[in-house]
Structure formats: structure tokens, C-alpha cells
């Protein structure tokens, strides 16, 4: 059974002092939430400080990006080797990286391979633009992003996929739960075609885009959706805690029902 995951993508927000304060405000209650994996993705420069704070807790860390080379003359870049000792996850292919920094499916594919080679778990972001959605091209875009992004990677349940429709990111206009679950069902189907059914069933697929404490239940109550990648709302301690706690409650209930169904079928 897949363990739910809630990741907070802080983007280019928080100084080191603000990052520390935010973690302190959340840590005790995050620790109490069980049945859900909790991942904080602060800016690079705060990773070390936040790592010290969460040490010994169940809270995990992720970076927001990385280069695919291990080292070299790439001024300003951060390598997987540097992250390997600092965090467990790394967000790759976020639409803001694609849009503002020219990242292509090909580059993202290289990053995914490099992350796995360094035992980092990629949170691989995919999603369509508004005009692509309106033109009915969502599946085509997602299938392309997946086949190119995953073409060189070995099948691995360590990969997490985040389905983030671009029109829903930071806009306050979230997808509806059923619509997101249907697209995520298609993503799982595509994984089973690219790789195999076992990996497709093991791998976690999150929804992202304007998730808040008011709409998280709509997504999480869909068994197909394994969690969320949360941007804006992850910068507010009460909001993020509520998202994590609602997820823990709903997914724990879903797992109990599933276990009962399996027991009944034996
Ligand atoms: P948002 O961002 O929750 O602020 O829409 C999500 C993301 O970009 O990962």
C-alpha cells in the first residue's frame, strides 16, 4: 500500500531565520501526524539549518532543483552529490523551472537519472498549460513529459510524480478532485505501459496547484491521489499543519477499509 506524502514547496521564499521560525512553529504537530510522509522543501541555503532542526524526527527534507552533473564548471549550480547528504527528496521539472529557466523534458530526464544515481528521490512534476487543457490535449502533453522525462531512468518506486496543471499553480483555481483523480489514473496507466504494472501501483502520484486546508480533503479522499505538493499554503504553519493532519486522518481511514477488503476477499 502506498504511504501518503505531503510536500511543502517553499519556492524562493524565507530567509534562513524565517525558515527556522516556520519549522519551529510546525515541528511538534508534524511529528504527531502519522500515516503520512511529511517533506519540507526550503531554499538550498536553509537546508542545512532545517536539517538540524528536524534531526531525529519523522520530518523529511527535499531540495527544489539540482544540476545533473556531479561537479564542474557550472557557476551557481548545486549538484546531486551536494544534496545527497542533506536531503532525501528533490523536486525536478517544476513548471516554473520549465517556464522561467528553459528546462526541457530532456534536461529533466537527465536530472531524474542523476538523482536516482545519488539515492535522491525525485518529485517529478508534470502538467499541462491552460490552452492545452482547453484544447483537450492534457493526456498528450503528460504522456510526452513522462516518456521523455523517464526514458533513461530505471523503473523505481522511489520516484514520486506530482501532477500540477499549470493553470492551477498559484492561481487560487485548483482542479476539481475528480478531474485530478482521472488524470492521475491516466498517469498510472502510462507508467504501467512505460514500465510495468507493479511499479505503476507502487509509485506515489501527488496533486499540486492551489492546494489549501479548505480543498485538500477533496483531493485526498480520492484513493488514486497519494498526497499533495503544496506551494503557497506551505508557508503558513497552520495551513500546512491542517493539510497534513487532514491527509493523515483520511488516508488512515482509507487504508483500514482497504485492509478489510483484502481480508474479506481471502
Ligand atoms: P501553489 O504551488 O500551491 O502555490 O499553487 C504549487 C506548486 O507550485 O508546487
SSE layout and pairing:
Blueprint lengths: L3 E6 L6 H17 L3 E6 L2 H11 L4 E5 L16 H5 L4 E4 L2 H7 L3 H13 L3 E6 L3 H5 L3 H12 L10 E4 L13 H18 L2 H6 L1 E5 L7 H5 L6 E4 L6 H29 L1
The chain binds 2-phosphoglycolic acid.
Short account of what is shown:
The chain is an alpha/beta fold.
How many DSSP-defined strands?
8
Helix segment count? Answer: 11
* Mean pLDDT across all amino acids: 97
Query: What ligand species are in this complex?
Result: 2-phosphoglycolic acid
How do the strands of the widest beta sheet line up side by side?
Answer: 1-2-3-4-5-6-7-8
Helix content: 40-55%
Gyration radius, rounded: 18 Å
Distance between the termini: 17 Å
Tell me what portion of residues adopts beta-strand conformation.
Answer: 15-25%
Order of helices and strands: EHEHEHEHHEHHEHHEHEH
Name the overall outline: globular
Helix and strand content put the structural class at alpha/beta
Low-confidence stretches are none
Largest sheet descriptor: 8 strands, parallel, barrel
Description:
By secondary structure, the protein is of the alpha/beta class. It has eleven helices and eight strands. The chain has an eight-stranded parallel β-barrel, surrounded by six helices. Strand 2 (36-41), helix 2 (44-54) and strand 3 form a beta-alpha-beta unit. Helix 1 (16-32) runs parallel beside helix 2, helix 1 runs parallel beside helix 11 (237-265) and helix 5 packs across helix 7 (138-149). The chain starts with a strand and ends with a helix. 41% of the residues are buried. The structure holds 2-phosphoglycolic acid (PGA).
